[in-house]
UniProtKB/TrEMBL annotation:
Record carries keyword Cell membrane: yes
Stored PANTHER family: SENSOR HISTIDINE KINASE CPXA
UniProt xrefs under PROSITE patterns: HIS_KIN
Primary subcellular site in the record, as a coarse category: membrane
Source organism of this protein record: Tissierella praeacuta DSM 18095
Assigned EC number: 2.7.13.3
Subcellular localization, as worded in the UniProt entry: Cell membrane
Domain Histidine kinase residue range list: 86-294
Membrane-crossing segments per the record: 6-23
Name of this chain's protein: histidine kinase
Top-level taxon: Bacteria
Length: 295
């Protein structure tokens, strides 16, 4: 009986020591996690989650989520700072021009300066409006709501909105509607994204050269091709044209602020799609890929 009691006590002592050791290890690992989190160095590669206890795993997940939220806040702050800097930089020229022409108008009473003031004011209004849209997209204020929509209806709306500008350059927008196509996208915002591409095709396209819009169907995506002949894009510039305020070498003599394509890419990518660009001599093809099913 005494031997049995001694054995039980020894087993209990061993078990208690084992538990205490595990608690000590958990405390050490949690302290390590906290130290790394405080220093901003906490990441998934530091700890093997399969070897952690339940409480450690929950704490590990919490720290990862917290760090991700903190990173998102830092990124948003950086985006806002960049945006404010962009607004300040890009608005200086039209504001300076408005002030200059207003002064000339005041001094010389020349009526022709009024048209230039109106033009610069419209440019500034367009710039600010698009910067606000970009800011709202980047900070998540605007939520895109993709649903099953007709690609044909989308293209018809875009052609209708582009008609006046196209006619001024004797450009016809061709869109053969041999069948109906559907994809998942936010109708309003996707219309704006593709309109920006078509508008660029008109602005930088050659007079009397038509714009061709075609649809190609794949298993997962629908591809919308916008093809036109124009000033062309240098091969080394293709990856840069979607940067905010980037103006290609061949486009600098044309009016524009360089934000339309940036906005287009943001809208399409936030819906699980993407945009490709191919330049063949003077022919340019923008391909917009939209998912056929809900992501």
């Amino acid at each position: 009986m005494n031997i049995f009691l001694i054995v039980v006590i020894i087993v209990l002592i061993i078990y208690i020591l084992y538990i205490l050791k595990n608690i000590s290890l958990i405390n050490i690992r949690i302290n390590e996690m906290l130290d790394l989190a405080i220093k901003g160095n906490f990441n998934e590669r530091v700890f093997d989650e399969s070897k952690l206890s339940k409480i450690e795993s929950k704490f590990y997940r919490y720290l990862l989520d917290y760090q991700l939220k903190e990173k998102n806040l830092i990124d948003q702050k950086k985006n806002i700072e960049i945006l404010i800097s962009d607004i300040s930089h890009q608005s200086k020229t039209p504001i300076s021009n408005i002030m200059l022409y207003s002064q000339l108008l005041k001094e010389n009473q020349f009526i022709e300066y009024i048209d230039e003031i109106i033009f610069q004011a419209d440019k500034l209004s367009f710039l600010i409006e698009n910067l606000i849209k970009t800011s709202r997209l980047e900070t998540g204020i605007i939520k895109l709501n993709p649903s099953l929509n007709s690609i044909n209806d989308l293209i018809k709306n875009i052609i209708s909105s582009s008609l006046k500008k196209a006619e001024e350059k004797n450009i016809y927008i061709e869109f053969p509607q041999d069948e109906e196509y559907f994809a998942f996208f936010d109708f309003k915002w996707t219309e704006e994204a593709i309109y920006n591409i078509v508008d660029n095709g008109i602005k930088y396209g050659l007079e009397y050269e038509n714009i061709h819009i075609k649809i190609v169907e794949y298993t997962i995506f629908l591809r919308i091709d916008i093809i036109n002949k124009g000033i062309g894009i240098n091969e080394e510039e293709i990856n840069k044209i979607f940067q905010r305020f980037y103006r290609g070498e061949n486009a600098r003599h044309k009016e524009g602020v360089g934000i339309g394509l940036y906005l287009s890419r943001e809208i399409i990518e936030r819906q699980g799609g993407y945009i490709q660009v191919k330049s063949f001599s003077k022919q340019i093809r923008f391909s917009v890929f939209l998912p056929k099913d809900k992501n």
